[in-house]
Amino acid sequence: MQRHDHSHFLIDLLAIKLLAVEDQVARVRCSDFPSDAPRKLCDLIAQSAKQLRLQLPRIKTEEDDAAKRSQARMCLMFAKEMLASVRFAQRARTENTPWSIVPAFEAYVRGLVHEPHFLVLRPKWTHTYEIIAGFTGRCRGVLRAFLDDEEVESVLKDALLNDGHSPEPLPEICVISFPRLERMNPLSHCLFGHEIGHVLCAPWLARSAGIKERIRADLALKVGAEYHDAPESERVEQFDLAVAVCEQGVSELAADLTCALLFGPATLFAIYEYCALMELDELPTAENSYYPPWRYRLRVIQAFLNQGASSECESELQARFPEAHVAMHEWLQVIADLVADECDRHRLLNPPTDSSNTLRTIAMVYSYVEDHMGAIESLVRENVPAAYCYAGRASAVCTVVDRLDRLIPPNEMRKGDNHAPLSIESILNGAWIFKLWRLNSQTAALRFAQERGLAVRLSNDAAQAGAEAHRVGLAVLNRLVVKAIEASFEHHCYLEAHR
Ligand SMILES: [Zn+2]
Fold first, then answer.
1. 422 contacts 392 by C-beta, under 8 angstroms
2. Rounded to the nearest whole angstrom, what is the distance from the C-alpha of residue 486 to the centroid of ligand 1?
3. What is the whole-number distance in angstroms between the Cα of residue 193 and the centre of ligand 1?
4. pLDDT digits over 75-88, tens only?
5. Residue 421 Cα, ligand 1 centroid: separation in angstroms?
6. Beta-carbon neighbour count of residue 342 at 10 Å?
7. Is 413 helix (H, G, I), strand (E, B) or coil?
8. Contact of 191 with 72, CB cutoff 8 Å
9. How many whole angstroms from 26 Cα to the centroid of ligand 1?
10. 248 C-alpha to center of ligand 1: Å?
11. How many Å lie between the centroid of ligand 1 and the Cα of residue 194?
């Protein structure tokens, strides 16, 4: 009789768990999704789980006990990770997403990123936008421990390719999370641009031109000089900290700048509104994953947008919608005043003389980042393929403002004798200007609701009536903008198909 053995027990258990993963995925896969991407994620998970399960009998017969345990452990970690990843697809079901604009955003991302990507959009109850990329690469890495390269690529192809897709390179899958409360708030979804910025910036931050190596070499010198009389272990610790703070800082700032290039001034307004709910001046710490302070980020974005500012669009907006023009500038001034107070920057760059080494290192890193901000901006400009020229879209932006004010979804504009679809960027910029003008406060929203006959629940309490009008006005705006993005995308697809 065979003796009981922990490795065998684990492997049998794994077979059951991997079957359970496949079963879960199959059930989620039957759901209704707004695009193909969540189903592709399901297929990738199911295929990977199945391949690992098929390896288990061989692992069980492995003679070397240490190798057997290490392979079983790898399968276990991967099974756990895969099972946790099913939630991304499960939450990307149609009813959880701004489903009607998902295809438009997917197409927008496909136009920006060189390698093919499937984009899964899913809500998150925490109030945060974030991206998790590289699912295909992760599965490839694990499967290669068990199968040869050709077999791995064949498994991935089965999962990811549709008929007619070119197999090279295989698509990556990335998941962008958005705050559940903002599901139907497309103006806030300008922040997808920041997350896409992480995808666009990752290659140059990680590989090309040896930037990562150069940063590490520069920081090694700086840490060496700052802590020359400290013990070696302290220097190593501060160097590791400097690299972590610098890489996260540069990555976040570069993603912000990318968003600013993609969506123009709408980026600034979306980030301003988003970070209004945050602590503005929180220094980078391990707890916040070394994020730069929000006020610092707003300052960097506003300075960057000011470099490309032009009065061309301004004058058309000023002539056609003078009140909207004034409102937009009032809000730009609010943000300018906010960032003019450099308390965050002062705390970052000038730690007290008796402060901890952590604060000294963070100050050193940010002084280095500031010295190289021009280079970061240039790299972002070089690597973002589709900068939005806000200044050149005066007519489109004004069309959006005009239609929204008449409660019409702005999906196209006259171009000569034809009607051309509006771009997602112009819709979002026009929508933001409209919001800053007509729905920037409860008083403004009440006036708008009364003028446009919006159904607002009556209340004797003036504050409650204002809040209700604000809520209704913003909900109407969001629906108009969602409709506009959907319809302009359909129009664009129609033109492409009939060219
Ligand atoms: Zn980020």
1. no
2. 26
3. 10
4. 999 989 988 999 99
5. 30
6. 13
7. strand
8. no
9. 32
10. 9
11. 6
Q: Which two tokens stand for residue 34?
A: 């707004």
| 3-state SS assignment for residue 258 | helix
CB 196 within 8 A of CB 262: yes
CA of residue 86 to ligand 1 center, whole Å: 23
Ligand 1 center to 178 CA (angstroms): 12
Averaged pLDDT, groups of 10, the chain, 499 residues long: 75 92 95 96 96 93 87 90 93 95 92 87 95 93 93 93 73 95 96 94 73 90 92 94 95 96 94 94 93 97 84 78 95 96 96 89 96 93 79 86 95 81 94 97 93 80 86 96 96 91
Which one, of 163, 159, 183, 185, lies nearest residue 171 by Cα?
159
The Å distance, Cα 164 to ligand 1 centre, comes to 34
Extents of the domains making up the chain: 6-183, 201-391, 398-497
Ligand 1 centre to CA of 198 (Å) is 7
Q: Which helix (H) or strand (E) holds 300?
A: helix 294-307
The CA 196 to ligand 1 mean position distance, Å, reads 9
Provide the whole-model pTM: 0.92
Tell me which amino acid residue 368 is.
Answer: Y
Q: Which residues surround ligand 1, an ion (CB under 5 A)?
A: 252, 255
Helix (H) or strand (E) holding 124: strand 117-124
pLDDT of residue 361: 96
How far, in Å, CA of 34 to CA of 480, rounded? 19
The pairing of strands 117-124 and 172-179 is parallel
Q: Ligand 1 mean position to 130 CA, how many Å? A: 6
Secondary structure of the chain: what % helix, strand, coil (to 5)?
Answer: 70, 5, 25
Rounded Cα distance, 298 and 272, in Å:
7
